[in-house]
Design brief:
By secondary structure, this protein is an all-beta fold. The chain is about 0% helix and about 45% strand.
Amino acid sequence: SRIKVLDSSTIIGDIAISDLIVKTATVSTTSFVDTDVRGDLAGGSFMITGVSASGNNPTTFRLFWGSGPTTSISLILTTASGTVPRTVLIPEGTSVPTDATHILVYSSDGTCFSSPTAITFTDNEIFAPVSGPQSVSFQDTSCDIDAVTGTLNVTCAASETDIDSYELFLRDSSGTNSDVYVRSLSKCSGTSVNVSVTLTVTVDIGGRVYDTFVVMSKNRIGYGPEASKLFTNEQQPSSILGSFSFNDTNCNSSILSGNVSMILSSACTDSVCGDTFQLLFGTNSTNRVSGGSVLAEWAYVGLLLSEYRATISNVAIPGTANFLLVHAVKGLCYSATPLYVPILDAYPPATVSGTSFTDTNQRQRVINGTLQWNNVPLATAYRVY
């Protein structure tokens, strides 16, 4: 083809032309997964895994948002082509146009651009969990005034598909103090529907006292619903000051019967003095018989010199028991020092042996002389009939 040059109506020359047809190799295969979980924002690795065999080698790639597979909206970025396959990083936080449905990639050899290669774009938006733990249970098994110890049981959410973990907090049920973070808890695994963890947690933090465990579901976006458990901080009662007495009236060996009496000599003014008093067997003057039953129990009435009475009847003495103890009890906790008396089992002494008597009085139906017998261990008196 030629272009003619005119001066008025006279041809003064012409120029031969040729149409510049540049064929740049197009991108043949791509992939992209949005790793920015925020809505209307994108980011991640855009993979260019191949270019067509025909056409000039590209020197740059240009990525556009597209409203369709061939219609570009706005430029995302331009990058040197480099070696293919290659990864082009779309920075997280890149804004996504409202009508964007595709990512288009163009290749260029520095003069012209290829036709676009398009992939469908899906915004990987994740929301905070919509499900949370179903319930929380906890029982303090320590008697520490400043801390609780026990097993925390969490019934997991019915569906954990949007949950990464559960988070444990301390809360003041009065609302006076802010929640305090304790630790992270794993999701349920396999067919399990519960998460259990044994822990010791300080609940008096600089004078701020907490009384509730709160468990929340969580993922990368934020926190979901919660479940809570108001707990009782078990505390050891004060030691009892007073007197305690018991006399066994049962003559059967290893069996106790009789009246128990306890009198307080000092009023319990401590706020953790105990709710009840319990009569128990003890291995010594301090330690309770393991697994032993409660022989008697009195509710604390808080009056100085009040007498607490009980009667026990035909109670078998455990093999390891040597004492009777009275403890102040509050919840699961027992006073450090109980009142105590040793067990004096009123079983019959051994049979008297070695008896002898010679009458020295010669009158009829009148006797006089010395009665002798062997000493019987533990006997406190003898009766002669």
